[in-house]
User: What shape does this take?
Amino acid sequence: MNVSKGEVAKSNDLQKAFGKSNVEEIVREVKEPTFHNLRKGHSLNIFPNPQILKKGEVQIGEKEREHDLTSLRKEIATLVAEKCVDPATQRPHPVGIIEKAMNEAGYSVKQTKNAKSQVSECIKLLQTESKLPIQRARMRIKVSIPVAKMESLKEQILEGAEKVEVEQTGQDDWEVVRDSGFHSSLMA
Assistant: This one.
């Protein structure tokens, strides 16, 4: 098949590619991408020929892929900077320093995953493979539960806390304000 010479695909080729040989059915799957000019209500076709997008794959250019990778890397570094601190000063590291440490540790960004899902892995790698002193920031959490459930949950809630700031038992509820420590047991 050579479109520039006016040649079209044979029925067998259409059957292999689309699972059908009827040109009209295949054309129904065609979508023409357009830009809309909202002020004038006009649309402009951005491709000279219709593109089959429903079942096809979008080809991404090298520059666009590089830009996406760079912005994903920066987003991961930003999230790490929000969640971690320097253990000596308890202040957050700048995003640029985190990015340098990611390079130093050999962290590889996965384009198929979003930034949030890669942060935990990145932090672990930075803690083990980079020279940057880093730890997760501590948070204060407040837990309020009915007094009836206090005895069964008290040990689990206080587990892993380095510091309990407030512990009050009221008529109807038990309230604790503590550092976050390892609060993953609370999320279960």
Remarks:
- The two ends are 58 Å apart (CA to CA).
